[in-house]
Amino acid sequence: MRIDILTLFPGMFTGPLTESIVKRAQAKGLVDIHLTDMRDFAHDKHRTADDRPFGGGVGMVLRPAVVFDAVQSIPREPQAKVLLTSPQGRVFDQKYAVELSEETQLVFICGHYEGIDERIKDLVVTEEVSIGDYVLTGGELPAMVMVDSIIRLLPGVLGKAESPLQDSFYEGLLDYPHYTRPEEFQGLSVPTVLLSGNHAEIARWRRKQSLYRTLVRRPELLDKAPLTPEDRRWLAEFDPAFARSYN
Ligand code: ADE
Questions:
Q1: Number of the ligand 1 atom closest to the C-alpha atom of 142
Q2: How far apart are the CA of 102 and the centre of ligand 1, in A?
Q3: Which is the most buried residue in 46, 50, 69, 150, by most CB within 10 A?
Q4: Could you tell me how many helices (H) and strands (E) the chain has, helices first?
Q5: Whose CA is closest to atom 10 on ligand 1?
Q6: Where in the chain is the domain with CATH 1.10.1270.20?
Q7: Residue 169: which residues within 8 A CB-CB, separation 6 or more?
Q8: Would the CB of 149 count as within 6 Å of ligand 1?
């Protein structure tokens, strides 16, 4: 996969792209990440990337020519997805991450200031994408978040032990609790089932924990999660209202 990131602040990406799993994925040639400084496409004396909004109002708007020329400078396959970070976009989630991880080229345009000239959306943007209902100072952090979660899904990036199939959200449920040595810590013990060596029992306990946590913390996720009849019976034991909602 090739990922292009168009930004006014390329220096912000140094840490996230040069450490840990993302660094390893690039070193293994599983992903090829290119940063483009959009300011290189602002050709006036002061390299101005923004301008005042037509119609007045507060804030500045990213100039269309700067963004357009930056996008055009990239070697782009016809099927490349061009994503614009914006609080107005489709909200990024694990399903969206999986979809994007199946692409061969992604181009992220990091929005800034009050926004970007609307015509850029008509001309080059495939989709606007938000990382949640809050406002950041720019699209760099959202791009990093999305790039990180997409890269870890690429085949070969994670070892078998860290497989994305084990993820919280993989099955649309929250993760179960994890424990490591020692068996007792500050007076708190590891649940005995985990020490039993009975793998079927352990799997059942973990599934129940995931279901219970999801029911308590994020019940809306249960509407979309693929649930077995046994899952539904457990949920009904935890919460009789759940049973009623499925009758
Ligand atoms: N730019 C500012 N806030 C954002 C958000 N929540 N998601 C994506 N881009 C943004």
A1: 8
A2: 23
A3: 150
A4: 9, 10
A5: 86
A6: 184-245
A7: 93, 94
A8: no
Which residue ranges does the chain devote to CATH 3.40.1280.10?
2-151
* CATH class of the region 2-151: alpha beta
Cα-based angle 100, 77, 109 (whole degrees, multiple of 5)? 55
Pocket test for ligand 1, best of 131, 141, 144 (most atoms within 8 A of CB): 131
Q: Residue with the nearest Cα to atom 2 of ligand 1?
A: 136
- Among this protein's residues, is 114 annotated catalytic? yes
Active site residue 87: yes
Residue type, 229: P
43: closest CA among 63, 19, 22, 16? 63
* Residue 91 CB–ligand 1 contact under 6 Å: no
Question: Whole-angstrom Cα distance, residue 42 to residue 26?
Answer: 30
pLDDT single digits (tens) 220-234: 999 999 999 999 999
Specify the fold of 184-245.
Trp Operon Repressor; Chain A (1.10.1270)
Q: Provide the pLDDT for residue 170.
A: 67
The burial class, CB within 10 Å (0-12 / 13-18 / 19+), for 207 is middle
Q: What is the pLDDT of residues 81-119, one digit of tens each?
A: 999 999 999 999 999 999 999 999 999 999 987 899 999
User: Is residue 105 within 6 Å of ligand 1 at its C-beta?
Assistant: no
